[in-house]
Amino acid sequence: MKAELTEKFLALYGQEPKANYFTPGRVNLIGEHIDYNGGLVMPCAVTLGTWLSIAPNNDRVIRFNSLNFPETQEIALQPSYTKTGSEWYNYPLGVFHEILKKHEIPTGLDLLFYGNIPIGSGLSSSASIEVAMAYALNDYFNFGYEKIEIPLLAQKVENEFIGVNCGIMDQFAVAFGEAHKALVLNCDTLKYKSVDCNLGDYSLAIINTNKPRKLAESKYNERVAECQTGLAQLNQEITLNNLCELNAEKFSLHSHLITDETVLKRATHVIRENDRVSLAAKALNEGNLEEFGRLMYASHQSLKDLYEVTGAELDAVVEFCTDYEYVIGARMTGAGFGGCAIALLKKGQEEDFARQLTDFYVERIGYPAAIYISEIGDGASAI
After folding, report:
1. Quick one: how far is CA 307 from the chain centroid?
2. In the Cβ-directed half-sphere of 207, how many Cα atoms lie within 13 Å?
3. What residue numbers does the annotated binding site cover?
4. Most C-beta atoms within 10 A of its C-beta, which of 5, 82, 273, 294?
5. Active site residue: 59, 139, 170, 305, which one?
6. 170 an active-site residue?
7. Which stretches make up the Galactokinase N-terminal domain (predicted)?
């Protein structure tokens, strides 16, 4: 890929790139809609991701090009920027906006992006682009950001420049990912531990429903607000910074404070899902993939019934997986409302799984899903 990008870069800009970077996408193995509630999540980086090639120019402009999108942008270096429209280059532009608050960028830049993360799939293509840009600027200009500052900066871009109230999980996972390991991240303290994710006889299948999920336009922000309402009502009687400070037992003692049935359902999912992450980490440490798979199914059911973020497409995939003898666990991953599901699929069954799932999904939904088999990969790096 580096050689292909170099060739494209040379054709586009008349010079070769001076540096190249890769940042992965991510899947969340379990712990959904927990990151903005201060609890535990279990993401891992995947081997799909974003490549970025850069070179300086003497024109004091930033040139944005992508092999994935027709839209291009050339914009003069200036002290700050404002998001305009919904084009892809707003994500890296937001990184420039944030970094320019503290650092002067001494030269113009020619940029070329390429990604093989399906857009709108819920595999964090936006976080991958943001972290790739932040990592590249920090590395190329030696700005001195600590590793933890990169995902925090990228999250701020997502929240304030793009306008999506996401938590830290996506940006953290694509920055800190480790091959063959899952990360158990406390989204409140940002403390994390790596858990060996030895899938043994199983592969990680990623099933893209091909229903695009436009997060900023979805009900994601509505779910964030519902959780904040639940937290405020609980704080009439106890003092909490986040919903996930409660376990299921303590929550049952105070749940009567939440008077709205919908808000109660949202909070119940959050508390139980947070507990499931701890149980899932224990299962992985013990090599108990069957228990891990059971927890995946339980997570999806909660996201369907209590959090109501799955939809017909994701439910169809998980329904098929439940009845397919060579899958031991499946669930939606990401924010939902479309996007992807993941499944633990026995190795050697990939072709049969893809064929049977495609037939089932087309009959149920009317168009095919896309199926990928991925490894668990490393986080952002220079290449």
Report:
1. 18
2. 30
3. 32-35, 66, 120-126, 158, 220
4. 273
5. 170
6. yes
7. 7-56
Residue 147 contacts residue 136 (beta carbons within 8 Å): no
Whether 146 and 17 have beta carbons less than 8 Å apart is answered as no
Dist. CA 239–CA 255, nearest whole Å: 14
What residue type is assigned to position 124 of the chain?
Answer: S
Does the pLDDT at position 1 exceed 70? yes
In three-state secondary structure terms, 8 is helix
Fold of 2-195: Ribosomal Protein S5; domain 2 (3.30.230)
Known binding site for Mg(2+): residues? 126, 158
Q: What is the CA radius of gyration of the chain?
A: 21
Alpha helices in the chain (DSSP H): 2-13, 90-99, 125-141, 149-156, 169-176, 220-234, 248-254, 261-285, 289-305, 312-323, 350-365
Domains 2-195 and 199-374 belong to one CATH topology: no
pLDDT class of 217 with cuts at 50, 70, 90: low
User: Is residue 255 exposed (0-12), middle (13-18) or buried (19+ Cβ within 10 Å)?
Assistant: middle
CB distance 138 to 150 below 8 Å: yes
Phi, psi dihedral angles at 157 (to 5 degrees): -60, -45
Could you tell me which residues are annotated as the binding site for ATP?
A: 66, 120-126
CB 352 within 8 A of CB 337: no
**Contact in structure between 318 and 297 (CB atoms under 8 Å):** yes
- Cα(117)–Cα(383) distance, rounded to whole angstroms? 18
**Rounded Cα gap, residues 349 and 327, in angstroms:** 9
Domain limits of the chain?
Answer: 2-195, 199-374
Residue 149: both structure tokens together: 């500052």
Q: In what order do the strands lie in the sheet with 370-374?
A: 327-333, 340-346, 202-208, 370-374
User: CATH number of the domain at 199-374, please?
Assistant: 3.30.70.890
- Digit-coded pLDDT (tens) for 111-157: 999 999 877 666 778 999 999 999 999 999 999 999 999 999 999 99
- For residue 19, pLDDT over 90 is answered with yes
pLDDT of 68 strictly over 60? yes
**Calpha distance 280→214 (Å, rounded):** 29
Measured in whole angstroms, the distance separating CA 241 from the mean position of its chain's CA atoms is 24
Q: Are strands 327-333 and 370-374 parallel, antiparallel or unpaired?
A: unpaired
Structure tokens at 296: 């995946």
- For the chain, percent of residues with pLDDT exceeding 90: 86
